[in-house]
Amino acid sequence: MTEKSTETKVAEAESAALKLAQLSDDERSAALNAIADAIIERSDEILEANERDVSEAEELLAAGEYSQALVDRLELSPSKLDSIAEMVRSVAAQDDPLGETQTARELDEDLELYKCTVPIGVIGTIFESRPDALVQIAALGLKSGNAVILKGGSEASHSNRVLFEIIREATSEMPDGWSQLIEARADVDALLDMDDAIDLLMPRGSSAFVEYIQDNTSIAVLGHTEGICHVYVDDAADLSMAADIAYDAKVQYPAVCNAVETLLVHESVAAEFLPKIAERYVDANVEMRGDEASRAIVDMEQAESDDWATEYGDLVVAVKVVDSLGEAIDHITTYGSKHTESIVTEDAERASRFMRSLDSASVFHNASTRFSDGYRFGLGAEVGISTGKIHARGPVGLEGLTTYQYYLEGDGQVVGTYAGADAKSFTHEDFDGSWTPGSLSDR
Amino acid sequence: MTEKSTETKVAEAESAALKLAQLSDDERSAALNAIADAIIERSDEILEANERDVSEAEELLAAGEYSQALVDRLELSPSKLDSIAEMVRSVAAQDDPLGETQTARELDEDLELYKCTVPIGVIGTIFESRPDALVQIAALGLKSGNAVILKGGSEASHSNRVLFEIIREATSEMPDGWSQLIEARADVDALLDMDDAIDLLMPRGSSAFVEYIQDNTSIAVLGHTEGICHVYVDDAADLSMAADIAYDAKVQYPAVCNAVETLLVHESVAAEFLPKIAERYVDANVEMRGDEASRAIVDMEQAESDDWATEYGDLVVAVKVVDSLGEAIDHITTYGSKHTESIVTEDAERASRFMRSLDSASVFHNASTRFSDGYRFGLGAEVGISTGKIHARGPVGLEGLTTYQYYLEGDGQVVGTYAGADAKSFTHEDFDGSWTPGSLSDR
């Protein structure tokens, strides 16, 4: 097989996208279940290819160029393949995100406007070196009727090639070319210029990488740069609750973007709260880095100004004593990344002020920042967490992979009728109903 | 008054945006009505400044560097000011686009997630030389709780300065700096780099200008590039209806983006339809440019390949005979700009195939393309028409100037409870309700 150019692959995806949009949910979901079956049936092939990736990674590990954690993440097993197949089936079982009539409006008699959800089109995705990421993204793309360009990490290239081939063969009923694999970094740069053909880019990876993508394309980008999340312990907080939340938000899974990075504590409760949380953090090996006021209460490292703007992704937390709710809000506005912030307080008024004053995607009252997640939010499968404000923000589910289209059903109406001296008026009346292709509703 | 730098203006807007988000609809609407009053009260000032713009433009007109149409567009009058004030009042009277709870979901007992509409933040706008454009954009921005950076056409600079000053003074109750005027083209380029402070850019103007903006910023851009709209006359069309629609779509207002540019006609009705529409087009001075098959039926200019991809914005229409619905779809997919397309047919099945096969923002059945408009769609005031697929598409109303935020109300829940061996399950049950700031609902 001669390798196709990236341009050819994207053109194929573009043409497949238009056909994919016309398939029913049953058809798309059946193809997803066929992928799940094929992953189980052909697991020997997958594991064999994965072994090659893992042994190459282990050589790099031996040479000190790779970490054990990365090798672990790369490695597949029969039980991991079972759970990947299960994940694909659960995507198939989700509600159809397409064809939902969001608005049905009579503009005039027998002139009906429908706003309906449709796929976005062609989505370019660039993701990390977990072989399950390729399957997950392809599954979410197919469920939402989008053609996908897949670029995985090079460390998983053998696994990715086999998985891609299995998906391709299992979805032979789907429009040809709906998914495309690209492998070279240069091909990613080629994607960035294809703003006529690609409708959305979804990069996953480091902040620096996501920013590089944003800075080098005019295509819309859905992704998250940093997760600098805050917990603010108000002077009206239940301090035992505050300690539980601050502990969970840091310790339960420190490597993820919704973990807390900076703890802000009102000065009037700092002397009581800080020793309480410090004891628990010390037990969990959390390193605290504080400002002068915090260090006067509990012995800890000194926080430098960089600390307020750092996503540690580790068992480290910055601590600052603030003199007011207002100072907490200002601090978050200055250093935050608009991801997730939480206030702990028994005072509803103060909670409201905190929540309405911050423009982060998720703002919580008396709950851990770690709840900021598609599964916990009940969105079903999660595409990612967006720190942008446009299109989709916060945890993004299948809905974030859709857009809408306006369908207008008439019986020959022209605008001239509604203009000039004898202009007819519009009725503009919303009604319950959904678009029946090609015909006016029988209301 | 020393002129502030663009950076300072944007920083002021950023800080004002956070405060603006906390005001009530009544407060924002009262400020809008104050703007309307001030425009009437201070109309002499406005007209005086406008006279300077107009006389400068007339000098350019005399020198042949300006068209009469542009001078007309620039010119204000007492009655035009009345209608501008009326427009501002109608924006004030619209439903509040903010604070709408789109989803209320119980995640678990006393753990409630609310998805609510909020302003986007800071919106950079660049618009054409109509002084009413400044007022319209400022009004839509304020109603939707957004801070706006306003850059109007330099030909209207005297009018814009006075109008801006009037708006600023009339909205002294609003957060200081919520609207900002910039005047130099170099300042526009400065905006393009401020992706940390500006959340959305809305350029209006030529396609080339909108593309320039898209290509030179990593900020999200909402705008429309081209309006290459199509009417397809199917072989199952009512030909008299088809002629009415094709006539209205071209002639009723040829300069706008939702006018038809290419007429596609099924070969089996071309011999009957083309002479019928040609007669009406000739009466209205519409120039027809056709392919060979069309010219064999009606005498017209020959269409070159460029014609299929041209937005004439004038009394010119390209005409092509197609052998099937499929060829019409392919033609639109190749040459269209994803704006608005219409099929005329009595066959619901064929209408459905046309509408579902095209990924244009608006696809119509038996109605003129000219209906593609915020007012006609019943969206209230129109921000513009977007040809992108992300965030907002087609005619965009106030809703397009909003995004959403997730509010989570808990009573101390931590994620650790829902993880591991004894993990508690989420309930994930949607309920009717809206966010009451800072407190759990009494369900």
UniProtKB/TrEMBL annotation, chains A, B:
Residues 2-292 form the Aldehyde dehydrogenase domain. It catalyses: L-glutamate 5-semialdehyde + phosphate + NADP(+) = L-glutamyl 5-phosphate + NADPH + H(+). Its main location: cytoplasm. Pathway: Amino-acid biosynthesis; L-proline biosynthesis; L-glutamate 5-semialdehyde from L-glutamate: step 2/2. One of its GO terms (cellular component) is cytoplasm. PROSITE patterns: PROA. The gene is proA. Keywords: Amino-acid biosynthesis, Cytoplasm, NADP, Oxidoreductase, Proline biosynthesis. This is Gamma-glutamyl phosphate reductase. It comes from the Archaea. It is found in: Cytoplasm. Pfam families: Aldedh. Gene3D superfamilies: Aldehyde Dehydrogenase, Chain A, domain 1 (3.40.605.10), Aldehyde Dehydrogenase, Chain A, domain 2 (3.40.309.10). Catalyzes the NADPH-dependent reduction of L-glutamate 5-phosphate into L-glutamate 5-semialdehyde and phosphate. The product spontaneously undergoes cyclization to form 1-pyrroline-5-carboxylate. InterPro entries: Ald_DH/histidinol_DH (IPR016161), Ald_DH_C (IPR016163), Ald_DH_N (IPR016162), Aldehyde_DH_dom (IPR015590), G-glutamylP_reductase_CS (IPR020593), Glu-5-SA_DH (IPR012134), GPR_dom (IPR000965). Belongs to the gamma-glutamyl phosphate reductase family. GO terms for biological process: L-proline biosynthetic process. It comes from Haladaptatus paucihalophilus DX253. Its EC number is 1.2.1.41. GO terms for molecular function: glutamate-5-semialdehyde dehydrogenase activity; NADP binding.
